[in-house]
């Protein structure tokens, strides 16, 4: 079973949308989720999890000792799961990485807040920084939800048809081709004739050509990589 451990200041955000639809139905069967409240690992009267940045500057920084205790509790020595830190400076999450995670035992995910996390605990605990896009969120929780949703849907038995996950955008290096369904005519727009021809070879060729066209137009970076 894929096991996710999330370290956060807001455990009430989980499972959130992951408790619904495919992921929700599979929770407890194909995958397990546990949350760890970061503040439980703080000490002192005020149980502070952050402090002012060394060298000055705005905001606060999450304390290395507090984060380390939380990670050590959620992921004891010998735990084979990767330790991830949701961060805008991390490597962009890709479908390849999602598939690798889905094939593994799970993940330990640290959700950052404030200005960031003390660099020393990132190094000391081997955290892999992961980003879901070039923008800033209030914290890592939404990123963790995105990552887990992408992974869980690929776990065995979660999707009704295994091929549903193999023909989507990014799986082949291309964006996905357009989809159509009944009615045959919508506001004067018909379903492309080839899709109702019954000729599977022609349909496959059309879908491939459309995927290439859309990728060239919308994601020239992906197209260039595909050609390279």
TrEMBL record:
<dbReference type="GO" id="GO:0005829">
    <property type="term" value="C:cytosol"/>
</dbReference>
<feature type="binding site">
    <location>
        <position position="112"/>
    </location>
    <ligand>
        <name>S-adenosyl-L-methionine</name>
    </ligand>
</feature>
<feature type="domain" description="tRNA methyltransferase TRMD/TRM10-type">
    <location>
        <begin position="3"/>
        <end position="224"/>
    </location>
</feature>
<keyword id="KW-0963">Cytoplasm</keyword>
<dbReference type="Pfam" id="PF01746">
    <property type="entry name" value="tRNA_m1G_MT"/>
</dbReference>
<comment type="function">
    <text>Specifically methylates guanosine-37 in various tRNAs.</text>
</comment>
<comment type="subunit">
    <text>Homodimer.</text>
</comment>
<keyword id="KW-0489">Methyltransferase</keyword>
<dbReference type="InterPro" id="IPR002649">
    <property type="entry name" value="tRNA_m1G_MeTrfase_TrmD"/>
</dbReference>
<dbReference type="InterPro" id="IPR023148">
    <property type="entry name" value="tRNA_m1G_MeTrfase_C_sf"/>
</dbReference>
<dbReference type="InterPro" id="IPR016009">
    <property type="entry name" value="tRNA_MeTrfase_TRMD/TRM10"/>
</dbReference>
<dbReference type="GO" id="GO:0052906">
    <property type="term" value="F:tRNA (guanine(37)-N1)-methyltransferase activity"/>
</dbReference>
<feature type="binding site">
    <location>
        <begin position="132"/>
        <end position="137"/>
    </location>
    <ligand>
        <name>S-adenosyl-L-methionine</name>
    </ligand>
</feature>
<dbReference type="InterPro" id="IPR029026">
    <property type="entry name" value="tRNA_m1G_MTases_N"/>
</dbReference>
<dbReference type="GO" id="GO:0002939">
    <property type="term" value="P:tRNA N1-guanine methylation"/>
</dbReference>
<keyword id="KW-0819">tRNA processing</keyword>
<protein>
    <recommendedName>
        <fullName>tRNA (guanine-N(1)-)-methyltransferase</fullName>
        <ecNumber>2.1.1.228</ecNumber>
    </recommendedName>
</protein>
<keyword id="KW-0808">Transferase</keyword>
<comment type="similarity">
    <text>Belongs to the RNA methyltransferase TrmD family.</text>
</comment>
<dbReference type="InterPro" id="IPR029028">
    <property type="entry name" value="Alpha/beta_knot_MTases"/>
</dbReference>
<keyword id="KW-0949">S-adenosyl-L-methionine</keyword>
């Amino acid at each position: 079973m894929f096991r996710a451990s999330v370290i956060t200041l807001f455990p009430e955000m989980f499972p959130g949308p992951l408790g619904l639809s495919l992921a929700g139905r599979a929770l407890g069967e194909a995958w397990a989720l546990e949350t760890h409240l970061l503040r439980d690992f703080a000490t002192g009267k005020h149980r502070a999890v952050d402090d002012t940045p060394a060298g000055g500057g705005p905001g606060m920084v999450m304390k290395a000792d507090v984060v380390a205790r939380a990670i050590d509790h959620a992921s004891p020595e010998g735990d084979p799961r990767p330790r991830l830190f949701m961060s805008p400076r991390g490597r962009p999450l890709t479908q390849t990485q999602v598939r690798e995670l889905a094939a593994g035992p799970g993940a330990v995910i640290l959700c950052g807040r404030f200005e960031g996390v003390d660099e020393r605990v990132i190094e000391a605990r081997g955290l892999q920084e992961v980003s879901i896009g070039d923008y800033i969120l209030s914290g890592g929780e939404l990123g963790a939800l995105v990552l887990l949703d992408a992974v869980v849907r690929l776990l065995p038995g979660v999707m009704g048809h295994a091929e549903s996950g193999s023909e989507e955008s990014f799986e082949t290096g291309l964006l996905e081709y357009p989809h159509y369904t009944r009615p045959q005519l919508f506001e004067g727009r018909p379903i492309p004739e080839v899709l109702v021809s019954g000729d599977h070879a022609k349909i496959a060729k059309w879908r491939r050509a459309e995927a290439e066209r859309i990728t060239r137009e919308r994601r020239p970076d992906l197209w260039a990589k595909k050609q390279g």
